[in-house]
Structures are given as C-alpha cells and as structure tokens.
Predict the structure.
Amino acid sequence: MLGSYRDLFATPGAKPLAAAGLLARAPRAMVGLGIVGMLSQRTGDYALAGAVCAVFSVSIAVLGPMVARCIDRHGQRRAAHPALAVALLGLTGLVVCSGTGSTPWADFPCVIAAGAIPNIGGMLRARWTAMYRNGPRLHTAFSVESVADEMTFMIGPILALTLATAVLPEAGVLCAMAFALVGTVAVTSQRRTEPAPAERDTAHGPSVLGNPGLRTLTLTFAALGCVFGGFDLTCVAFAAEQGHKSEASVALACLAATSCLAGLVTGAVRLNSRLPVRMLAGMGALALCTVPLLFVRSLPELAVVLMVVGVFVSPSMITANSLVERLVPAARLNEGLTWLLSGLSVGMSLGTLLAGWAVDRLGAHTAFVVPVGCAGCAVVIVLSGLRRLGAVRQEEPHRVGEPALSGGAAAGR
C-alpha cells in the first residue's frame, strides 16, 4: 500500500509541493467560521454573521471559476498573485470594519472581494496532472489531494473558531490571511512543477462548463454540498435535542476520519472499472448509507452511521476529479475543478437553509430527510448523465510518464 505513495513523492518537487499546498488550502476552510466567530464576538448578532458568511460562500462560487480561468490562461504565478491581493484586501477591510465597529453594511463588499481567493486545490491538481498525466501516479496524487482537503476542513474551522474565541475576535481571519499569503507564494514559487498556460485558442474559448459531463458533475457536487450542509446543521440540532450539543463535532469528525482513511486506501489501489461506473457506484453506496439516519435514536448510533457514510465520500470525490481530468482540456483543468468547488459551495449553503427550515418545522430527527433526499438526488443526476460522463476530450496523445510542464520549467531541468 505504501509503495504507491513512495513512488509519488520520489519525483523531485513533489514533497515541497504537497507541503506548501497543505498550508495554502487552509484559508478556504478557516474564513467562514473565522467570520462567524469574529462578528458574533464583536456584535453579538448571529444573523449578521451568518449573512456575511453566506455572501462569502456565494462570492467564492461566482468568482472562483473566473479566477481559475485567468490562472489557466496566464499561468499560476502571474494570475494567482493579483487575485490573492484582491482577496486579502477584502479580508483586511473586513477586519478593520470589525475592529472599529463600522456599519455592518460595509462588511458585504469586503467579503465579496474576499471571494477572489485562488482555488489552491485546483492549482495543485493541475500541477500533479502536468507531472503524471496518463500515469498511475496521478490517481494517487488526486487521492492525496482529497485527503488533504478532508484534513483541512477537519482542523481549519476548529482552529479559526478557537482563535476567535480564545485569543482575539479577528485572530481566526488574520491567521487564515497569513496562511493564504505564505502558502500561495510557496506554491507559485515552485516553477518546476507549474503547468504551461493555455494556448490562445483554448484560453479564449467558451467556458468549460459547456461540457455536458462537467455540468453533470457540477450539479452532482451541488447535491453533495446539500448533503454536507444538511449534515452539519442537523447533527448539531440532533445533538442539542439529546442534551449533548458539543458532541455533534465528534459525530462529524467520525465522518471526516473514515473519509480520510478511505481516500488513502483508494490512492494505494489500482481500480480497473470505468470511471463513470465507479462514480455511480460510489454515489449509490453513499446515498444508501445515509438512509439509516432516518432511524437513529442516539449520538453513538449517529456516529456509526456517519462513519459508514464517510467511507464513500473521498473515493467519490477522487473519481469526480479524475473524470474532470478526462473531460476538459488539460490547460483548462483548474477552471474545470473550480466549477466543482462552486457547485459544492452553493449546495452547502442551500443544504444549510433547507435543514434549518426542516429542523424548525419538523424537528431535528425528521430533518435528516434533507441530506438523505439530497444524496438520492445526486444519484439520479449521475445516472441521468452517465453517458455524458463517459465522453473523453480529444487531444494529442501524451506519452506516459512524460511531465507536461511549462517552457521555463522544462528548460530548467
């Protein structure tokens, strides 16, 4: 099992790239709860904190693909730095508004600008693809990225909220800003692994969302986001009904832990099944495993069910990322992957809203119908688009094991 990961990190530049990426991806997981912690501490207005956080999520969903397209067109180093500067300027304005007690309306344009933060996960997957395209190590690299995402979203929100409540209300957002600056610069400074910018004809073509297979995956991720958003709120409400609200995080951590483990195992094995079939099987298993949520009566039962659900989360996301690599031109991979993230962000916001409505009107236990139903919708979406997911982009063949790096990187070898 470990041999696949030894092979992956044996390539020069792979270890520092993974390390820098782990730091650079943290801000996306930290800013949301950092904003909630900061504004709730300063104003005591949770409605305002939730509204600002929701606008930030929408901004990421809208601006993310635009920023990703610029990065694909002009290169990661040239385009990511200006986008990061805009995002940091917006977060700085938000921190200043919080510290000075400015009018709450000033928070919204700040978080809209903050949505320009580059999608480091997409940039890293584009680099791995340039290094290992058509080789077996690309599957392992995508698995590493999915596990890193899971770890970030396990630790990042807790760190942001802890800093906001125990150190300074603005500390969580400030820490996220520092991670974004240091991590992004650390990634973009590694020129050896940077993929070449898109050719002019490709770069100025229509959005890759025009690809029917990518639209299917984006809608699938929106449904998955509804599942995850529903999990978060409904689990907290269910734990509160049981008189142990703080233990909701333990149940959610069980899901993340098994998802990480499943991602590591997936990266170490070689699967011969077709990717669309694998995607359908993974989503079907995930949806089936959510059904017992309708029958849980205690927190231990909830934790066990979420552990089983987590087994199919990372493998499904790894398969989806591999499908995007097959569906869109290599030079537009970052944009394609960012559309999945946009779908996930919008879905999480919608799932939280639906779950909140269900909890208020039906009760926490019955509200589990929201994530269960959304998981079923994800299966239907994949099934209806199965043929579209099987399409493969038409490009010049690339020799296995030959990294497709930028001209400067190739010249430097």
User: Anything to note?
Assistant: The mean pLDDT is 83. Residues 137-166 form the longest helix (30 residues). Residues 209-393 form a domain with the Growth Hormone; Chain: A; fold (CATH 1.20.1250.20). Residues 65 and 105 are 26 Å apart (CA to CA).
